[in-house]
Amino acid sequence: MSISTPQQRIRAVREEYSLRETLEGYGFSVPYLLVFAAFLVYPLAYGFWMSLHDWNALFPDRTEFVGLANYQTLLADPQFWNALGNTVYFVVLTVPFLVVLSLLLALGVNRSIKGRRVLRTLFFSPYVLTVSVVGLLWQDVFETNGLIAYFTGFVAEPVNWLIDPLLAMPAVAIATIWWTIAFNFIILLAARQNVGEQLYEAARLDGATSWRAMVDITIPQMRNPMMFVVITSFLSSFQVFGQPYIMTDGGPAGATETIVMYLYRTGFSAREFGYAAAVGYVLFLVMVAVSLVNYFVLQDDGGTSA
């Protein structure tokens, strides 16, 4: 008959409990993993397989394996580079404003001012609109007889921003900032409200100015939420489609055709699904690279964050 010490019995109970806890954890994870595999892993793998073929969705038996030919064609396609350049230009126009303005709005509304609840509602209200409403609304604002032309018409000739190659993309960017800044605003406002006020009281006792308090307390404490806002702003701007599609249809002369619009036209208008899949994969790799760069640049270096 084996004799076990109390320590051995305790260790056996702990191991049994740990095993049961591990199995329960895997059990709870299985539904998510199945959904993750079905709706993300499989489409990614299938899309890459499509990009290696001259894909014919109507007649699958005519589908031909072409290897990396779609990627070679893509790299030599001036329309692809034009669309990618337009997308990068749009990202440059929107992301800094989406981050900086949302931070300033969050810090401003967080102060004890009259009507701040009304201001929060006003800042957030555009976000509940659909992209079609936003596109048509700002289309009326920027056209020759629109709101901007009405006010600038007193000092200059009215201009339709949406048919000017130099002004069309800034017009789309302005509409996008007005529409989507609310999401970042809410995230950063919640992050600011999680910063302990005792830190600011201590800073004031030490004679710190409002600027020093923001640089030394607010920004470091909000590092992780700000990193989230920056990365999501980059990703959403790289995937812009609805606003330029409704406001300009990619014009004038392709000045506002983004990479997702090019993918859409290639796949659903030209029926070149394999080539469109290759475009989608290049966009995917670009967004992964941008996300990684943002993460390593903005990651917390050991400080306390919200």
Descriptive overview:
This protein has 306 residues and is mainly α. It folds into two domains: 24-67, no CATH class; 73-305, MetI-like fold. Helix content is 71%, strand content 1%. The protein is built from 13 helices and two strands. It has helices spanning 6-51, 69-75, 78-109, 116-124, 131-142, 147-152, 168-193, 197-205, 210-221, 223-238, 242-247, 259-269, 273-298, and strands at 53-54, 64-65. Strands 1-2 form a two-stranded antiparallel sheet. The longest helix is centred in the N-terminal third of the chain and has 46 residues, at 6-51. It is flat. The termini are far apart.
- Computed over alpha carbons, the radius of gyration is 26 Å
What does the average pLDDT come to?
A: 87
Query: Which residue ranges are poorly predicted, with pLDDT under 50 across at least 5 consecutive positions?
Result: 302-306
CATH topology call of the largest domain: MetI-like fold
Helix content: over 70%
| Terminal-residue CA separation | 57 Å
Q: What general form does the structure show? A: flat
Classified by CATH, the class of the largest domain is Mainly Alpha
CATH architectural type of the largest domain: Orthogonal Bundle
**CATH evolutionary superfamily of the largest domain:** MetI-like
Strand order of the largest sheet: 1-2
Total separate domains: 2
Structural class: mainly alpha
Spell the H/E element sequence: HEEHHHHHHHHHHHH
How many helices? The count is 13
Brief summary of the model shown:
This protein has helices at residues 6-51, 69-75, 78-109, 116-124, 131-142, 147-152, 168-193, 197-205, 210-221, 223-238, 242-247, 259-269, 273-298, and strands at 53-54, 64-65. It has 306 residues and is mostly helical. The protein has a two-stranded antiparallel ribbon with strand order 1-2.
